[in-house]
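Project standup — Tuesday

K.O.: blocked on the structure for the chain from last sprint. Re-posting the sequence here as requested.
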Amino acid sequence: MKSINLFAIIALELLLASPPPVRATSPETGAEENALMNNAKAFVDAFEKGDAKAVAAFWAEDGDYVDLTGRHLQGRSAIENAFKDFFVENKGLKLRIDVNSVRFLTPDMAVEDGTTSVIPPDDTPPSQARYTNVHVKKDGQWVLQSVREAPYTPPGNHEHLRGLEWAIGEWVDEGDGPEVGHVTFEWSPESNFIISTQAVTVKDNLVSRVTEWIGWDPTTSQVRSWSFEGDGGIGEGVWSNQGDLWIVKTNTILPDGEKLVATNVVTRTGPDAITWQSKDRTLDGKTLPDVKETKMKRVP
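H.V.: unblocked you, prediction finished:
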């Protein structure tokens, strides 16, 4: 679909697929919001009919529009021509509008922020954008004075995991014993989780394997992890750090139902070197010895 996300354009859209945000309004402001909603209905009708002239009429005569590519359309005539070209190449589109805020700067000017999705008639993904629209009231009618689009990034928790970004890659045990540990860390497709795969081999024979998802828990404002062991055990952990030292408090339910509690300590000793140790271990409340510290290095 050609790039004119057209629906960032509208600003009028308070009603379309999502309810307006809840906020206190005066009777006067409420009436003006209703007027914007009525414009939205008319705009959608015009857009879905592919009527470029009717769509452009929602702008002020000297209104402008900057799309995701940075193209600047100045004036109602230029906007109409752009819509004509767009409708020739794209038919049967639908739209979803999610309004984040509407602010009345003056009785005759409102600023609207939100996100838009232009939905094709087939099953291809929608085109999404963030938008900021400026409405002005001229001769008793609300019109679009300015529309600005920006790339849309889905909300996520990537930023909360940046403290672990250094771990992305593959790591191997530096020990010279028969058992060799391998660990990989990689971002999930949406970058909201770090996925860790841990394996232990003896003479190239796999003896254990664990998959762990590390993410952000917004309810506790903590980094947490959920692990799934090859033998059927499941566990969870809470992560905290002190500089290059990461402490992971874990609780694991073993396949036979026993509960293993431990504190795992990961220390970054260099750009490509870490140590790992498991301490304070108990099995159903009975104390277990600490696991010997293991040195690991990044695989080039």
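K.O.: great, moving the ticket to review. The longest strand covers residues 94-106. Residues 6-24 have pLDDT under 50 and may be disordered.
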